[in-house]
Amino acid sequence: MTDARLRVSFAGPLVTFQDAGRPGHMRFGVSASGPMDRLSHTAANVALGNAPDATAIEVSMGGLVLECLDGEVSLSLTGGAFTVDRSGDMFDSWSIFSLSAGEKVTIRPGASGSWAYLAFAGTIEARRWLGHTATHSTSGFGGGQLVTGQTIDITDASLREDRHGTIDRPGFLETGAKMRVVLGPQDQHFTPEAVEAFQSSPFALTDAFDRMGVRLAGPTLDLKAALSLPSEPVTRGSVQVAGDGVPTVLLADHQTTGGYPKIATLISEDIDRISQLRARDPVAFTAITPAEAIQTTRATAAVRNGYLDAISHPKGTLSQRLLRENLISGVITGTDPDT
Amino acid sequence: MTSIFPSFTAVADHALLVQLGDDISEELSARVLQLDQAIAAAPPSGLRETIPAFVNVLVEFDPLVTDHIEMETALRALFDADAAPASEGVVHDVTVCYDTDLSPDLDAVAQATGMSTDAVIAMHLAGEYRVGMYGFAPGYAYLSGVPKPLQLPRKSTAIRDIPAGSVLIAGPQCLVTTLKMPTGWSIIGRSTTQILREASDRPFLFDVGDRVQFRRIDRATFESLSSRGAS
Known about the structure:
The complex is a heterodimer.
Chain A: E1 2-11, E2 16-18, H1 38-47, E3 56-59, E4 64-70, E5 72-86, E6 89-92, E7 95-100, E8 104-120, E9 123-124, E10 151-157, E11 165-166, E12 178-183, H2 192-200, E13 203-209, E14 213-217, E15 232-233, E16 238-241, E17 247-250, E18 257-258, E19 262-266, H3 268-275, E20 282-287, H4 290-311, H5 318-329
Parallel strand pairs in A: 12-20
Antiparallel strand pairs in A: 1-4, 1-10, 2-3, 3-8, 4-8, 5-6, 5-7, 5-8, 7-11, 9-10, 12-19, 13-14, 13-20, 14-17, 15-18, 16-17, 16-19
Helix pairs in contact in A: 1-4
Chain B: E1 7-11, E2 15-19, H1 26-41, E3 47-52, E4 56-61, H2 68-80, E5 91-96, H3 106-113, H4 117-126, E6 129-134, E7 141-144, E8 159-162, E9 166-170, E10 173-176, E11 181-183, E12 186-190, E13 211-216, H5 219-228
Parallel strand pairs in B: 5-13
Antiparallel strand pairs in B: 1-2, 2-4, 3-4, 6-7, 6-13, 7-10, 8-11, 9-10, 9-12
Pfam families (chain A): CT_A_B
Protein name (chain A): KipI antagonist
Organism (chain A): Shimia thalassica
């Protein structure tokens, strides 16, 4: 095992180091941070043979260009439909590939998705805060934001050629604009028309979208009466409505408390799905009961674990793969002298 | 009349908001703290974390282990168990230097309250502060207890890039900032006390419920404590 060193030739805004997040400190004003799309982050790691919560780079739509200065390392890219240009070799995200000294990789947003995850076979050296490298973007604590010109060290870098190739995408997630919410905890303060409009009208993401949250465009959601709530805890997925009647969905780096009423809260799976949409993409909200929300999450978790287990096994070297395919299709028959 | 509190409201698939009342009061803060401590002493199965605030506690749980109904049952049992009163919080000494360049809004506060700046400082120092909750940003502890005459509304516009350590007041609350951030609160001084401490086994100085006593320091002390990066 040796080390690899990379140079950031270009990093767009909000390209950050993220491990799986820093839960447990909300009482001190610290949201968990971690990847905006948690499943893609885990997939990038396990497909490469890493621990599921290892540090990876979250690439925003600003894109990222890395140049390998020293050593060689395998990388995986998952998340949105981003494109990869590896020294002239073009392919899509959900791939595992290598990068060696002198080679350059350019990651750009493609047809859809807002965030991609770049994991390395080895350990990314990144600053920790409270035991985690997850970057809390508003404070800059944790691994931090990548800046053009900096170098990144990967310790124990390795080539894992038996894993190179494409990664199966998770096919089990809901798709489309429909997001599932549980109403509340303050839906009672809104007019019945507002609660109805929230569930029946189309909304769209706006470009007021960062790791803290995304503001929506759509019908104004009015309160029954002027309201002054004591500031109270908010959570990832809270749909808070400011005084102007405009809803904002809180995301990975959300404030931990706020005084705006929350008309609804997205279920965990759909927080990550809405995070992968882009400005002007449509969304619509469907209310489900708390029991249905739990049921949905448990069902998804079982399928998710099976998927992650399936992609975590090496595909084998090229010759191993050819051999396996031959055995499966039963082509090799003439070599056995007894037949 | 039977109280509607505590009330339990489901939050998505992973939390329960336990409401103990409507309006901020010392008595309600003590009940929030009591519940928070009771949960910490006997954590229900599947508990992830609790976030105590002024009138409620958010209880985050693992939906693969428990659900809203089980968690509500477990929390109701804690209420019924006649929990011990919340423990008295620790008293923390927090420095503050009121020099003019560190307290850009002190004159405006004096004008708005009809007091001299010395009287404003004396009254701020005399306040009995308690940590009501953290929020907004890492280490931002909202302290209740600003004396009545000093309770002023927020400024109409926020000022950007207020340095870490700024001592702010708005309404009944006081706050010592931990990061460079915008604020619409009145800036009346600067502290050298680090509430957010990197490389520490106790990264946040206060627990919710702790008490704070401000202590005035002069410029020389401020500079010397600032250069040491701690107090």
